[in-house]
Amino acid sequence: MKICAIIPTYNNAKTIKEVVLSTLRQLPVIVVADGCTDGTLEILQSIKDANLTVISYKKNKGKGYALKQGFINAKESGYTHALTIDADGQHSTDDIPTLVHAAEIRPEAIVIGNRAIKDGYVPKKNSFANRFSNFWFTVQTGFPIPDTQSGFRVYPLAGLHGLHLMTNKYEAELTVLVFSSWANTPIISVPIKAWYPSKDERVSHFRPSRDFTRISILNTILCILAIIYGWPRSHWRFFIYGPEFLFISLIANILCYSYLIHPTQERYQKLRQRISSGCKLLISVFPCCKFSTHISPKAKPIDKTKPCVMIGNHTSMLDIVAMLFLNEKTVVIGQNWVVNNIFFGRIARTIGVITVGEGVENYISTLESYVKDGYSIVIFPEATRSLNGILLRFHRGAFYVAEQLHLPIQPILFEGFAQALPKHPFHVGAAKEMKVTILPTIEPDDKRFGTDYRARAINVRKYYDSLLRHTDYTDSNN
């Protein structure tokens, strides 16, 4: 991934130098001086840095036009991604690594900085405009975003949609988001800091009456396009493949109910094998992407005869399907909604999904009985699916269970699952590949990740994080 920063500016002489210099410490910068008349261009020309490119023109044409010029220049310069940041100093350049990190994990996604503003002066017109834009974006795409007005973003230049329809003014960024969402480009949010100067100090070029009128007209047009183009395009896979998923779910439920008529251990094993085969079929024929399994260097195929604690990064409901396909002799630690779901709740209860609302430490004896019968335990340390595909905090439960029962930990890496079937909105995506990688087993006496469950929870998460960013993991305990 080759990334640069794009800074559109119009008469930001007081803040532009500091923003550019602090950004240059982290990324090459393209500044688009949009008809500046207050000395901004002269300030930019005084900065001597080989990583700074300045584009300028005499007439002010708007933020949308400036961004387009920046995108064009970035593409021609060979960049794959562009980080956009406002020139008024509202965004902290300390948050650049946060956005870049998210883009490294999800290079196909648009990453938006979600401004968590709790203190300080927040202009009412900005607050209203953001809520207004968020509402209409949700209506037009079915996908809620907490901050559609944030100008602090990372764009995949090859995945921008609607660029030729992009207007020249403030609403241009919304247009790109809507068309990109319709084209199933993932849009994820990460928290950032933001600062608003006082009302007397703030320089704003937003014209409430004129710009709100433009935005209202644009939203009207986008709502019409959503009905005739956007919704059908972004959800056609669900309407085509949804009945197939329901049919597979129906067959699995019938198998479960038939088992309950005459429950025996032999029939139970056959039921689990059939469900595992069904999971393999479902994930193998998943639409618009291929499925593959890999064994990483120094790893071995999963030995189904030896119980272990199987863990994985959790981004999609398909992660559980893949786990059941990899090893049918497992007991899954899940949440209450899983066993109560109308479609697959009966399946989950029949195959032994366990909910541990009171804490996994209270179920050690129950899990131990499963282990004695030869079952492995599946636990997703994040506890819930990640909304944006970025790794959440690893809880200690999985590592506590492994320590208490003296079991090896079998890490599994899932890639592409969030793109194929994201947590929200519920629709069939268009991942290029769903990839499962079996990682080297972590034995109980393996000290590379720490000697107790607390340290292991932290260090194994770092291990996953490095793998998702495709960087080498260097263990400090070696």
Give the helices and strands, then pairings:
Layout lengths: L2 E7 L6 H9 L4 E6 L5 H6 L6 E6 L5 H14 L4 E4 L11 H10 L4 E6 L8 H18 L11 E4 L15 H11 L4 E6 L15 H54 L3 H20 L5 E6 L13 E4 L5 H9 L3 E5 L1 H5 L4 H7 L2 E2 L8 H9 L3 E3 L18 H9 L3 E7 L1 H4 L12 E6 L14 H16 L10
Parallel strand pairs: 1-2, 1-4, 2-3, 5-7, 8-14, 9-12, 9-13, 10-11, 10-12
Antiparallel strand pairs: 4-6, 5-6, 13-14
Write up this protein.
The chain has 478 residues and is of the alpha/beta class. Helix content is 42%, strand content 15%. It has 15 helices and 14 strands. The strands form two sheets. It has a seven-stranded mixed sheet with strand order 3-2-1-4-6-5-7, sandwiched between helices. Helix 5 (124-141) packs parallel to helix 6 and helix 7 runs antiparallel to helix 8. The radius of gyration is 26 Å and the shape is elongated.
User: Biggest sheet: strands, sense, closure?
Assistant: 7 strands, mixed
First-to-last CA distance: 30 Å
- Which spans of ≥5 residues are poorly predicted at pLDDT below 50? 471-478
Q: Give the rounded overall mean pLDDT.
A: 84
Number of helices: 15
Strand order of the largest sheet: 3-2-1-4-6-5-7
The total strand number stands at 14
